[in-house]
């Protein structure tokens, strides 16, 4: 029989993402709605190990739906990777009286949560909060849409200066293992080329595509590069390579960096966070455990961690073809 849940703990872990506050708010408010106590842990798993927590009632999460970052802070915890660390966390949970957890984070957070839950029999539900969108159990992760909009608006600005000076810009965006941000922002910003970790197009093709751009009379070129691109050169080396081989180009590099994580979440991310977190609380109350919640074909679905963390996370390579056609 499922144990009775009186107190739910919530934490944000791994890289921060816009919309995490909307997610915390939804967990706190849904808990209040169902007359359950809600406790927030600071700095992800590390705060749980240290028992660093606060009580979250409906009013303690006022006015945070629109703010970036996370009021609970986020962190990566080496200690939680060890059994001893997780044991300390489990002891703290029983000391504080937390019966179940909502974990807001990425794939690492889910892996840690799954192990923890299996070792100490504590129900956990994962909510995908990461700008990378690299989780199979959901079509969209919280923060991804906002990050895309941030990237698009930065590229639009760079395009203005690029076309004023007839320049070629390499723009590096986040995505060490997944090219979702590069691919979608590249298409959305009308990039001439998009380089992603999932597809090594090779340097020859890049040069050929840029030559074609020049011949067709383009006044500027934008190449969006995912930081984990497999072409074998980082964005600065790529720029040097192109300068050597296409001396007619005036090449510049912009690394967008951490600005991609910040800012007020988009309406899409706020709504997504709200929907997923209400569901997470309801699943715990229904006795569910060890699943992640996600949005699949516009429906909120629970998926086992195993399924949700499958390698195949479905980058849409068709977008590369679309980009090719449209950069003619
Ligand atoms: P992002 O996708 O934004 O990087 P993430 O959740 O994948 O977010 P990670 O740093 O991979 O970020 O994981 C967050 C934390 O989860 C780690 O710092 C660690 O404490 C815990 N964790 C990750 N993997 C495991 C694991 N296999 N076992 C136990 N704990 C883990």
UniProtKB/TrEMBL annotation:
Q: Which residues bind Mg(2+)?
A: 107
Q: Which InterPro entries match?
A: ATP_PFK (IPR022953), ATP_PFK_prok-type (IPR012003), PFKA_ATP_prok (IPR012828), Phosphofructokinase_CS (IPR015912), Phosphofructokinase_dom (IPR000023), PKF_sf (IPR035966)
| Pathway given in the UniProt record | Carbohydrate degradation; glycolysis; D-glyceraldehyde 3-phosphate and glycerone phosphate from D-glucose: step 3/4
**Subunit and partners:** Homotetramer.
Please list the GO terms describing molecular function: 6-phosphofructokinase activity; AMP binding; ATP binding; fructose-6-phosphate binding; identical protein binding; metal ion binding; monosaccharide binding
Listed A to Z, the keywords are: Allosteric enzyme, ATP-binding, Cytoplasm, Glycolysis, Kinase, Magnesium, Metal-binding, Nucleotide-binding, Transferase
Name all Phosphofructokinase domain ranges: 8-284
Question: In which organism is this protein found?
Answer: Aquimarina algicola
Q: One Pfam family of this protein, by short name?
A: PFK
> What is the gene name?
pfkA
Q: Which amino acids does the record list as binding ATP?
A: 15, 76-77, 106-109
In its UniProt entry, what is this protein called? Answer: ATP-dependent 6-phosphofructokinase
UniProt-annotated binding residues for ADP = 25-29, 159, 190-192, 218-220
Cofactor or coenzyme needed: Mg(2+)
Give the EC number: 2.7.1.11
Member of which family? Belongs to the phosphofructokinase type A (PFKA) family. ATP-dependent PFK group I subfamily. Prokaryotic clade 'B1' sub-subfamily.
- Name the top EC class: transferase
Record's GO cellular component terms: 6-phosphofructokinase complex
């Amino acid at each position: 029989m499922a144990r009775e849940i009186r107190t739910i703990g919530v934490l944000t872990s791994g890289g921060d993402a816009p919309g995490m506050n909307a997610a915390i708010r939804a967990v706190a408010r849904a808990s209040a709605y169902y007359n359950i106590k809600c406790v927030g842990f600071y700095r992800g798993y590390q705060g749980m190990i240290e028992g660093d927590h606060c009580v979250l009632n409906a009013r303690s999460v006022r006015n945070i739906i629109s703010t970036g970052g996370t009021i609970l802070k986020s962190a990566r915890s080496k200690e939680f990777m060890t059994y001893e660390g997780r044991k300390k966390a489990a002891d703290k949970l029983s000391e504080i009286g937390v019966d179940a957890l909502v974990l807001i984070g990425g794939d690492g957070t889910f892996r840690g949560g799954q192990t923890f839950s299996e070792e100490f029999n504590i129900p956990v539900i994962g909510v995908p909060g990461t700008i990378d969108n690299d989780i199979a159990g959901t079509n969209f992760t919280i923060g991804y849409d906002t990050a895309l909009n941030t990237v698009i608006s930065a590229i639009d600005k760079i395009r203005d200066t690029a076309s004023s000076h007839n320049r070629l810009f390499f723009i590096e965006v986040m995505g060490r293992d997944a090219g979702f941000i590069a691919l979608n922002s590249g298409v959305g910003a009308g990039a001439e080329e998009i380089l992603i970790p999932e597809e090594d197009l090779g340097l020859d093709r890049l040069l050929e595509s840029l030559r074609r751009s020049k011949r067709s009379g383009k006044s500027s070129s934008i190449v969006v590069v995912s930081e984990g691109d497999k072409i074998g050169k980082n964005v600065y080396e790529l720029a040097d390579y192109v300068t050597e081989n296409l001396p007619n180009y005036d090449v510049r590099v912009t690394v967008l960096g951490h600005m991609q994580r910040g800012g007020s979440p988009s309406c899409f991310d706020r709504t997504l966070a709200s929907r997923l977190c209400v569901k997470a609380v309801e699943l715990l109350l229904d006795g569910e455990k060890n699943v992640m919640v996600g949005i699949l074909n516009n429906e909120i679905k629970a998926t086992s961690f195993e399924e949700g963390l499958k390698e195949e996370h479905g980058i849409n390579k068709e977008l590369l073809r679309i980009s090719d056609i449209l950069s003619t």
